Amino acid sequence: MISNFILLLCLSCRGAVDRLPRRAYTFSQLEIFSDMAKQLNWPRVERTLREKGLTLFTPQDLLHILGASEISLRFLLTRAVKRGDVLKLRRSLYGLASLPPAELEVANYLYRPSYISFTFALSYYHIIPETVYVITSATTRTTATFIAMGRQFVYHRIKLSAFTGYRAGRVDNRTVWIAEPEKALVDTLYFVALKKQGLPERIDAARLSMSKVRTFANLFNNADLEKIVEELL
User: Are 27 and 4 in contact (CB under 8 A)?
Assistant: First the structure.
């Protein structure tokens, strides 16, 4: 009877912390861990995270900072998420509800390594006039899509040799990794060359460095891309 209760309790909390201990715990041990979670005191934990500048954090960050057990952190995060003190952005990634992370900062953390690029970056730099609501990024991992904070985040896979041409920028007083304007254009044109998306109707390339565009295009070693670049320029 008690073992069944423990199993249900563990399953109900499973979403809060992702690296769960593999050993079994007795009912009395679970009570101890629950009490430990209460003693951690979320306002104090939040204050510590703020002092360290961690508005985005993982369970491993809490393990390192607090030195508490994984299961007590499970209880802590479960309660904090249910109270609305913590935003669960995806597995292993959380944010402070009282100080929500910037959306572009979230984009960098949701799926790593990645940098913001493609049409979202083109819109950000006013290279295309349209407003782009889907936050697009380049990654060396499998293409993926996530929904977090009411926004859609899409990650397109590019080859490792072309995973460059991005820089750290300041957005909402946060550091984010975003493609240089020329690289955002080339990333977009590469997917046009692959026929995975259409060419934006209006592109303002007047302020771009043509030599940088050609240099970035060469990284992809794609004849169709190079042809599109020459026609565009």
Answer: no
How far apart, in whole angstroms, are the C-alpha atoms of residue 41 and residue 24? 25
- Residue showing tokens 């995975």: 196
Where exactly are the structural domains of the chain? 27-96, 103-232
At 24 the pLDDT is: 53
- CATH 1.10.10 applies to domain 27-96: yes
pLDDT score recorded for residue 8? 41
What does 87-149 look like in DSSP terms, one character per residue?
EEEETTEEEETTSPPPHHHHHHHHSSSEEE-HHHHHHHTTSSSS---SEEEEESS--EEEEET
Q: Mean pLDDT of residues grouped by 10 in the chain (233 residues)? A: 40 45 47 50 92 92 88 89 96 94 96 98 97 97 97 98 96 91 98 96 95 98 96 87
pLDDT of 40 reads 78
Residue 18 sits at the vertex; the CA angle it makes with 26 and 4, to the nearest 5 degrees, is 30
pLDDT at site 159? 96
